[in-house]
Specification:
Elements: E1 3-8, E2 11-15, E3 17-20, E4 34-41, H1 46-59, E5 63-68, E6 73-78, E7 83-87, E8 92-93, E9 102-103, H2 110-123, H3 127-163, H4 170-178, H5 182-192, H6 198-202
Parallel strand pairs: 4-5
Antiparallel strand pairs: 1-2, 3-4, 5-6, 6-7, 8-9
């Protein structure tokens, strides 16, 4: 951000945000020129912004974008037409410099920007994102195991009751099948052989 690039002898200004290659350019011995430049426009005139775009492109910046704060729009500089091309909010900016396409809406909406950051970090293999994904996967496996055990125990209770000829109402069947408390299901299962009604099986305590 805020990199200083002299585009002409009489031009000395900073791009607001840019993407450039790491390391030093062997031709110049200095940092590489911006590949992509973003200008945030609030008070600047369109004439001045156009002049900046012309100079940046002439210097070699491949792509130049403007974010117009007041009109809430994003544009890309068109060297062929020498004008700004509006981008739709639903569009995406794709470029070899970006690890994942950047939603235009992310340049206009903070919530969408947060999502774009997360997606980019995930695409880069960020260690913290990977750790969180691994934890979520582990929780999912654990919850899946518990879910399976609970379903199995509930079905066993119903089979025992059926084998003993104990009537089970639809509400009682739903209570048994929807229970995910393994301790409670074990208690109910231990009661099945000793009680003659579902109410006794499901009694509290």
């Amino acid at each position: 951000v805020e990199l200083l690039t002299r585009h002409d002898q009489d031009s000395d200004f900073a791009t607001d945000v840019c993407v450039f290659k790491d390391g030093l350019d062997p031709v110049t011995g200095h940092r590489y020129l911006e590949e992509i430049a973003f200008e945030v426009i609030s008070e600047q005139s369109e004439r001045l912004v156009k002049e900046k775009a012309l100079r940046m492109h002439r210097r070699g910046v491949r792509r130049i974008f403007t974010i117009w704060v007041k009109s809430h729009r994003v544009c890309e500089w068109s060297p062929e037409n020498q004008t700004w091309r509006p981008l739709e909010a639903i569009a995406q900016i794709e470029d070899p410099c970006l690890v994942t396409p950047l939603a235009v809406a992310a340049l206009l909406d903070a919530a969408v920007a947060d999502n774009a950051v997360v997606q980019a970090l995930a695409a880069k293999g960020n260690p913290e994102i990977r750790r969180r994904e691994a934890e979520a996967e582990a929780r999912g496996r654990a919850e899946g195991t518990t879910e399976g055990e609970a379903r199995g125990a509930a079905k066993s209770i119903l089979k025992f009751l059926e084998a003993r000829g104990v009537a089970v109402s639809p509400a009682q069947r739903e209570e048994i099948l929807s229970c995910r408390d393994l301790d409670r299901l074990d208690l109910w299962l231990s009661r099945v052989a000793l009680t003659s009604s579902v109410d006794e099986v499901l009694a509290e305590g």
